[in-house]
Amino acid sequence: MDLTLSPSEQAFRDELRAWLEANHPGALPREEQGSFEFRRAWQRRLHDAGWAGISWPERYGGRGASLIEQAIFNEEIVRARTPQLANVLGLAMGGPTVIAHGTEEQRQRYLPPILSADEIWCQGFSEPESGSDLASLKTRATRSGDGWVITGQKVWTTYAQHAKWCMLLARTNPDAPRHQGLSYFLMDMEQEGVQVRPLRQITGEAEFNELFLEQARVPESNIIGGEGNGWAVAITTLMHERATLAFGLQVSVQIALQELVEHAERSPGSNGRAAAADPLVRQRLAQLMIEAEVLRLNAYRGLSATMQGGVPGPEGSLAKWHWSEVNQALTELAMDISGVRALAIEGDGVGDNNWTYRFLRARANSIEGGTTEILKNIVAERVLGLPRMR
Ligand SMILES: Cc1cc2nc3c(=O)[nH]c(=O)nc-3n(C[C@H](O)[C@H](O)[C@H](O)COP(=O)(O)OP(=O)(O)OC[C@H]3O[C@@H](n4cnc5c(N)ncnc54)[C@H](O)[C@@H]3O)c2cc1C
User: Phi and psi at residue 226, in whole multiples of 5°?
Assistant: First the structure.
């Protein structure tokens, strides 16, 4: 892949950079609900200026630009250190899934409010007994009149507390082989049969939730990809999750690394010198720089594969696995440099400039979006072509 930007791609990047500089919304409020609404307002502002859904078709409210321009956007928005967009799951996963598998009516109905952040999306896949082995899920959907009634429990549902729509995977045919008995629903979260209970994480935040479904109702028109086809649709969602996020994440690692170097320069090491003078710290920093560059090149390799095949491939699994290892190693080094000061999360808990917060949040990186072990299996089987385990 040629990594130089064409004149029009460069013009797009320059225009976006200038816009982000002029419109940066400032620092995120600390309080949880306030910070989510801040992110929603920020996404609206981008949308109103024509910067949402860069590669989505114009007829659904997107910009109709290329995947390269989408990748440039994903990089620049992180580089500018703006807050994360509120509808991250709708943008990265829900929208692309509806574009790939939805009917024309569904695309027109659901895509524009994802972009404007008027309707937030969440992902109801994992259950207490089904995470890695997702196809074993038990949430049941049974036919009733002109729709479906759904009963079961989901867990780790990020942003369920803010969401209007849930990408819900449920079993519609318990007699079919397990991958074939699933369907993919868009479930309205604003109904009596849906209860959301927050789960607090090690960082003190409650990003995710338990989801209790007791006779929740979904009309027939809200199945995506047809009854019994839920597994294929869910795979599309997961592929997009890993591939799309990889682009912004490799930039966030490069930024974090610069900050880590500054942290090492400012922090005391041994013999009255800065930590950055310590040969072991320097070796770890150098190794992280090499890994960050590999991450960047692999993100472009994944983009190139998507441009050729039309859909993200399993390379996204490699990128996500590698990113989680690099981010964990990076935050561990930051903690080693901080020494006892790392214990000072109290009172300064949530916030991007806090290494302790980042270290604790990074523990989830090798679990969320597929655990490292599962991603290694995918890479072994689908990238390297090794024999299947089962
Ligand atoms: C921050 C965060 C946000 C999340 N958000 C969402 C969300 O919005 N929606 C959603 O649906 N889910 C969400 N998840 C759930 C996430 O997808 C699951 O946690 C993940 O898929 C693992 O499932 P599990 O927790 O049930 O672990 P398990 O599947 O029980 O795995 C336990 C351990 O066994 C290992 N293991 C399991 N099977 C194998 C195997 N075949 N080979 C080798 N090792 C194996 C795993 O790697 C892991 O180490 C989130 C998780 C986190 C941490």
Answer: 90, 155
Q: Is 37 a catalytic residue?
A: no
Burial degree of 205 (CB within 10 A; 0-12, 13-18, 19+): middle
| Structure confidence at residue 111 (pLDDT) | 98
Taking 70 as the threshold, does the pLDDT of residue 119 lie above it?
A: yes
Within-domain flag for 59? yes
Same domain membership, residue 325 and residue 303 = yes
Count of structural domains, the chain: 3
- Choosing from 75, 207, 241, 291, which is the catalytic residue? 241
Domain extent for 29:
7-115
Beta partners for residue 208, in sequence order: 199
Rounded to two decimals, what is the model's pTM? 0.93
Residue 222 has pLDDT above 70, yes or no: yes
CB-based burial label for 58 (10 Å; 0-12, 13-18, 19+): exposed
Question: Is the domain of 218 the same as that of 342?
Answer: no
Decide if pLDDT at 125 tops 50. yes
pLDDT the model gives residue 290: 97
The radius of gyration of the chain from alpha carbons, rounded to an integer in Å, stands at: 22
366 lines ligand 1 (CB under 6 A): no
Q: Which atom of ligand 1 is nearest to the CA of 372?
A: 47
Instruction: Among 84, 123, 126, 139, name the best residue to mutate to test ligand 1's pocket (greatest count of ligand atoms within 8 A of Cβ).
Output: 126
Average pLDDT of the residues of the chain: 92
Q: Which of 50, 85, 115 is the last residue of a domain?
A: 115
C-beta of 156 in contact with ligand 1 (< 6 A): yes
